[in-house]
Amino acid sequence: MNLEGTLDAFGLPDVVALLAGTGKTGGLQLRHAQGPGLVHGVVWFREGRISGASSDRSRASLVRRVVGSGAVDDAALRHAVQRATGGGTGVARALLDSGAVDPELLRQAASEQAVDAVFDLLRWQTGDFGFTASQGDPDDIGISLDPAEVLAEARARAEAWSRLEALVPSQESVLSLPVVLETDPQVSRDEWALLALVDGRRRVRDLVELTGCGQFAVTTTLAQLVSRGLVHMSADGSAQDHVTVVERRLALLAAVEEVAEPEEQDEPVAPEMPVGPGAHGMSAAEALAAARRAQGLGSASGPGVPLPGRSRQEVVPPRPEPFLPGRRPEHPEPAYAEHAMPAPAPAAPPAPAPAPAPGVPMGVSMGGRGTAAVVEGSSARALAEHVDPEGAIERDPHVNRSLLLRLIAGVRGL
User: Fold this and answer.
1) d(CA 125, CA 32)
2) How far is Cα 222 from Cα 193, in angstroms, rounded to an integer?
3) Residue 379: which of 368, 387, 391, 390 has the closest Cα?
4) What residue segments make up the domains of the chain, in order of their start?
5) Burial of 205 (0-12, 13-18, 19+ CB in 10 A)
6) What's the rounded Cα separation, in Å, for the pair 222 and 216?
7) Which H, E and C letters describe 348-372, residue by residue?
8) Hey, which end of the chain has fewer CB within 10 Å, N or C?
9) 325 phi/psi in degrees, rounded to 5
10) Is the distance from CB of 413 to CB of 315 less than 8 angstroms?
11) Phi, psi at 293, each rounded to 5°
């Protein structure tokens, strides 16, 4: 028997009940205008019971559900597709025949797929239908569902759809994940399978295609995630994934993170200065000037001006180190020799001094192998006239003991 009509004149539940009551075997073909073209759906019957259904025959909905569950590998799927393209059987039936998929899992997926398809077809308000008894289901894997139960489940989903649309308003809505959650999330395996596909760009329709679980099942799971704050929904496509949000916020720190710290400059090494007055032929005044230049206390602009990049340092440290004894000159002065030479051993009382020789001033006596100088009064001036000026060390009147100590301490502090 051939049965044809339009959905606005005969509802899908009435047609399904008629075919189930007469125990027909074949395919109920349905067409519906959607967008620029037509969508073809089908409900398969075997002896009045539903053996399969699809709301879009152009897509292998049952196989997509199996692939989305991860129950088939590449080699098995490739072999099944090659067999299906040869004609006579579908991909799902080829997977079952080759043993690539657990039969119970495949039948469970086929049952859910049939209910999802009838739910989608019930929402078609316009279109036409026709029943053909000569056609059989190429993906018939042996399921047999009661048409009344399938229709009851489809009607229950249709009633719940209005509540789901309040949380998931459109199949074109873009999904994104929040950056921070208020509480620790608790998710099921089905929920995690959807969360793993949310990237801030995919739509609800894309998740339905990727998982193959059907529009109602995916929308139901997404509505639960949205109600718990685990997924954000954007109808205008302005949603951003959590990586984009974090990158945008980190970019705000660029103004303070791009300030480069000044490079550390090595301290200039001061030249090693001689220690002690008159060393290496340098007078005390010259040594003091060289030490001031080494410390940065003198420059081309004048003394007392520190060099650029150098801070003024104290010449005498708060706790001066003990000073080493001064260097003994090769030709000491008489006063230095008098203190440096060891004291002579006591001798017998001197004999009366003889008369002074001619040309020797009063108060100067000559005797023995050495010469002893006894200077008194005006004789000191006469003795000074006889001292060789080249054998004496010239003293700088501007250098005293305190200044020399400060000079030595400053050179050591470099």
Assistant:
1) 9
2) 11
3) 387
4) 3-150, 168-250, 271-300+400-414
5) middle
6) 10
7) CCCCCCCCCCCCCCCCCCCCCCCCC
8) N
9) -65, 145
10) yes
11) -65, -40
Residue 380 to residues 184, 233, 351, 366: CA-CA distances in angstroms?
Answer: 106, 114, 23, 16
DSSP 180: S
What sign does the CA torsion over 396, 397, 402, 406 have? negative
Distance CA 71, CA 48 (A): 31
Q: Are strands 128-132 and 26-34 parallel, antiparallel or unpaired?
A: antiparallel
Per-residue confidence (pLDDT) for residue 104, from 0 to 100: 92
Report pLDDT for 307.
Answer: 47
* Confidence at residue 316, expressed as pLDDT on a 0 to 100 scale: 52
Q: Is the dihedral of CA 318, 322, 324, 326 positive or negative?
A: positive
Quick check: 185 and 230 in contact, CB under 8 A? yes
Neighbours of 112 (CB within 10 A): 17
Residue 95's Cβ-count burial label (10 Å; 0-12, 13-18, 19+) is: buried
Q: Are residues 71 and 31 in contact, defined by beta-carbon separation less than 8 angstroms?
A: no
Token representation of residue 196: 């793993």
Collapsing DSSP to helix, strand or coil, 102 comes out as coil
Radius of gyration of the chain (CA): 56
Supply the pLDDT for residue 176. Answer: 86
Residue type for position 206: D
Rounded alpha-carbon distances, angstroms, from residue 129 to 28, 39, 121: 7, 12, 11
pTM for the model stands at: 0.55
Tokens 């019957």 correspond to what residue?
Answer: 45
In sequence order, the 6+-apart residues with CB closer than 8 A to the CB of 331 are 391, 393
Q: Cα angle at 214 between 212 and 219, to 5 degrees? A: 115
User: Of 14, 8, 13, which Cα lies nearest the Cα of 32?
Assistant: 8
Altogether, the residues listed in the chain come to a count of 414
Using CA atoms, how far apart are residues 33 and 127, in angstroms rounded to an integer?
7
User: How far is Cα 160 from Cα 163, in angstroms, rounded to an integer?
Assistant: 5
Tokens of 242: 């959590």
Q: Which residues of the chain fall short of a pLDDT of 50? A: 273-280, 297-310, 336-341, 353, 356-378, 380, 382-384, 387
Instruction: Look at residues 254, 172, 256 and name the one whose alpha carbon lies nearest to residue 206.
Output: 172
Written as six digits, the tokens of 363 are 């108060």
Instruction: Provide the β-strand partners of residue 4.
Output: 130
